[in-house]
Amino acid sequence: MLVKRYMRTKLVTVGPDEGANAALYLMKKSTIRHLLVTDGKKLLGIVTDRDFLLVRPSPATSLSIYEINYLLEKLKLKEIMTKKVIMVAPETPIAEAARTLLNRRIGALPVLKDGELVGIISETDMLRALFDLEEGKGS
Q1: Are 54 and 78 in contact (CB under 8 A)?
Q2: What is the mean pLDDT of each run of 10 residues along the chain (139 residues)?
Q3: Whole-prediction pTM value?
Q4: pLDDT for 6
Q5: Domain count, the chain
Q6: Residue 138, pLDDT score
């Protein structure tokens, strides 16, 4: 079983100058946890829901919700994205991709072919592969 069979190709991407607040809204609207930061088909970085938790102020802050939203809107993704992204190719065996997710303790891997972004594979996709294997569909 290869990554290309389970990766998602309908990608949600944004540019590096996107505001954090807008990106967070896009992630919630699209029900995704990993947002790819690109320049065309070139992958620049990745932002996760965890990154947003790390940049939000403590619940004990004295800032109002309006002040928090203002600060998050000024914050650009290029300031919080992970730039050294771990990637796989479409021809990577699914077990190798799953091992990478486990060993690196990450939730998704962008999929690149010839330097261009072609997909993303996440923990959820790995579970789909496992179910297919259990049901005898994964060959």
Answers
A1: no
A2: 94 93 91 94 92 70 71 84 95 96 95 95 93 76
A3: 0.83
A4: 95
A5: 1
A6: 58
* pLDDT (0 to 100) of residue 136: 77
CB atoms inside a 10 Å sphere around CB 26? 15
Conformational region of residue 81, where left means phi above 0, alpha means psi within -120 to 50, and beta covers everything else? beta
Domain assignment present for 115:
yes
For residue 36, being part of any structural domain is answered with yes
Range of the domain at 20: 3-134
Domain holding 108: CATH number? 3.10.580.10
What's the token pair of residue 77? 């993704």
CB 108 within 8 A of CB 122: yes
Residue 37 maps to a domain: yes
DSSP per position, 65-113: HHHHHHHHHHSBHHHHSBSS---B-TTSBHHHHHHHHHHHT-SEEEEEE
- Asked whether residue 139 is domain-assigned, the answer is no
Per-residue model confidence (pLDDT) at position 98:
95
